Structures are given as structure tokens and as C-alpha cells.
Amino acid sequence: MRPALVPELGVTDWRASRAFYVDVLGFDCRYERPEEGFCFLCLGTAELMIDQMGAGRDFVLVPPDAPFGRGMNLQIEVPAIAPFLAALKAAGHPLFLPPEDRWYRRNDIELGNRQFLVADPDGYLLRFFQSLGERPAADR
What is the pLDDT of residues 46-70, one digit of tens each? Predict the structure, then answer.
């Protein structure tokens, strides 16, 4: 079953973005159209598209200012965050938010995330998390 939502990120240099997502983070390139600066990426069941602005069909209303995606982060569930942290450290790529354990209330339970945030080459924030399970919600 395909996801009902697949974000497409406008990027300034699709080759640099592709290298970050594929070579550093371990995404697979399902297919690409180099003449359009386009690549369809996946990591487990997460899917994402990158599209170089000005190289093919643009869906940008006005030229954006860096960093892109302000006010949004893309949450990506992974079995464990440690391999991603190691890969980013080896690549010398800084984190936007260091690893943390957070619990989020959903009705009468809390869902635990071990998570961190990293910015891609254009400033889109990616929040990788592994599940810590659930527990009864603390009294409010």
C-alpha cells in the first residue's frame, strides 16, 4: 500500500540533496529524472521526493529564502536512531536538535519517542524517531 501523503521538497541542488539522503541517511532512490533534477526516495515505508527548483516543473509560488520548510518538520520513524546519528557524525553534518526522549500525550496514554532533528542541505528539518512504546498518561 502506498502512503496517502508523499512530500515533494523543492531543492536548490538535487545532486547535493540526493547525496545527503542516499549516501548519508541511507534512503533508496526508487527512480530519478536527472534532466528535471528529480528523485523519488524511500526509507522503509517513508517516501519523499526532491525536485530542483528551476530545472523542471516548479510548484513554488515565490522564490523561497533559505532555510526552506520553516515551521515544518518531517517525522520519520526508524527502528533505531543510533545508525543515523553515527552516519551524520561521520559525515560531519551537525544536528539541529540533539537526541532526546520525549513523551507525547494521546488521550489517556503517552507515546514515547527517542528522537533528534537534522536539517537537510536546504534547511528542511527531518525528525527521526524510534518508538519507546506507550504508558499511561500522567495526571494533567
Answer: 999 999 887 766 666 556 677 777 7
